[in-house]
Amino acid sequence: MTTLKMRSWLFAPGDSEKKMAKALASQADIVIYDLEDAVAAENKAAARQMVHDFLCEHPDDRARMWVRVNPLDGPYTLTDLAAIMPGRPGGFMLPKVYGRQDVETFDKYLAALEVANGIEQGSTPVIVLITETAESMFHTGDYKGAPRVAALSWGAEDLADSIGAASNTNTDGSYGFTYELARSLCLLGAATAGVPAIETIQGDFRDLEKLRTRAEKMRRDGYRGMLAIHPAQVDVINAAFTPSAEDIAQAREIVALFAANPGAGTIGFKGGMLDRPHLSRSEQLLAQVDEE
């Protein structure tokens, strides 16, 4: 499975070569070429060909070039995959799932097309959008051991549409309860599955200070990356989801302290007390650094 960094995931519409090139030239860890919401039905055939050709033109960057296909409950998914797989994308985003069964179906489609295109079977990873339908909210904890799943993310816009809501935000602009619940369930589902949780987009791409505040909070909460809709957001997201030198130094200090006191359940540290959960969090932070 992929060993790429997964801090920033930048969308670009699959029917715009200019925007696809601009996204690839950014510092985004992963670029997602979109065949779904960003492309009108009458342009989907052209977009498939454009994305395929773009993948073939940039073989050295394929690992970070992923594709969002259309949802399985529509007429386009297999056509998307048949067109894109010869270009050997780094991975796929699967939207609007209803539950784990959609991931398992998608795995079968990919396996057949990997074999047909001389790609190692099972080698194409998937990020799954697990809260875009009302039904999927009841299955966010079901992805442990699901094939190909490299990360989980959530969405608020399609969820609002699925449940017939007029808005997904409160009067102050914050997400309503149902959507904060989706965010929490995604985080818990990802932890259960043992994969990174990726925060959803911020639509206002000009407000970088708001983005910084939000991304830093999401990292503290346990998210490991964030979706982006504009290249200007990428550097802010990368910085927010990269542990600081101070964080790393303190984590190393805590790990070393427990290693020097292997029988201790709690240890005094800088005027406070540390216990085993503090050690676990420090080890997880250092694992992120080691992955990079």
From TrEMBL:
Domain HpcH/HpaI aldolase/citrate lyase: 7-231
GO molecular function ontology, one term from the record: magnesium ion binding
Positions bound to substrate: 68, 132
Binding site for Mg(2+): 132, 158
UniProt xrefs under Gene3D superfamilies: Phosphoenolpyruvate-binding domains (3.20.20.60)
Keywords: Lyase, Magnesium, Metal-binding
Pfam families assigned: HpcH_HpaI (PF03328)
Presence of keyword Lyase: yes
InterPro entries: Aldolase/citrate-lyase_domain, Citrate_lyase_beta/mcl1/mcl2, Pyrv/PenolPyrv_kinase-like_dom, Pyrv_kinase-like_dom_sf
Gene Ontology biological process terms, A to Z: oxaloacetate metabolic process
Cofactor: Mg(2+)
Family: Belongs to the HpcH/HpaI aldolase family.
PANTHER family on file: HPCH_HPAI ALDOLASE_CITRATE LYASE DOMAIN-CONTAINING PROTEIN, LYASE BETA SUBUNIT, PUTATIVE (AFU_ORTHOLOGUE AFUA_4G13030)-RELATED
Protein name as annotated: CoA ester lyase
Native organism: Allopontixanthobacter sediminis
